[in-house]
Write a structure and sequence with these properties.
Helix content: 55-70%
Keywords: Cell inner membrane, Cell membrane, Ion channel, Ion transport, Membrane, Transmembrane, Transmembrane helix, Transport
Strand order of the largest sheet: 1-2
GO molecular function: mechanosensitive monoatomic ion channel activity
Protein name: Large-conductance mechanosensitive channel
Transmembrane segments: 16-37, 80-104
Largest sheet: 2 strands, antiparallel
GO cellular component, one term: plasma membrane
Length: 147
């Protein structure tokens, strides 16, 4: 089997396509979560902690040459330990993990509801060929000749 045909069969599998769709949706979802954290959650956290601050500007200068008040300017001046950015990313992760937890919980609930549905009371009729073979079998059992 050539590498190209092997690759083609690998790509055609359902799991690979599902994974690709998940990654694309996850990438788009990251933007939503980032906006949620930066635009909605962090301003509330800043207001509650007294001062309306943003964690992303919290840093410790690792060089005496760094005197800037904002992280962006401080990075231009020298090395900084930007722990505020880490706090923001950690909050992003927690929110994303919680939302995914809620989604999985909802899907599991839908699956459980689907499993609880009663099966149809009347089974579907067998295909015509099976039905004909059953009639022939029954006739042979009774000893009636087939005409």
């Amino acid at each position: 089997m050539s590498v190209v045909s092997e690759f083609r069969s690998f790509i055609a599998k359902g799991n690979v396509v599902d994974l690709a769709v998940g990654i694309i949706i996850g990438g788009a979802f990251t933007g939503i979560v980032t906006s949620l954290v930066n635009d909605l959650v962090m301003p509330v956290v800043g207001a509650v902690t007294g001062g309306g601050f943003d964690f992303s500007n919290y840093f410790v200068a690792l060089s005496s040459a760094v005197t800037a008040p904002s992280l962006e300017e401080a990075r231009k001046q020298g090395a900084v330990f930007a722990y505020g950015s880490f706090i923001t990313v950690a909050i992003n992760f927690l929110i994303l993990a919680f939302i995914i937890f809620l989604m999985v919980k909802g899907v599991n609930k839908l699956r459980a509801m689907e499993e609880k549905k009663p099966a149809d009371a009347t089974p579907a009729p067998p295909p015509a060929d099976i039905q004909l073979l059953s009639e022939i079998r029954d006739l042979l059992k009774t000893g009636n000749p087939i005409r």
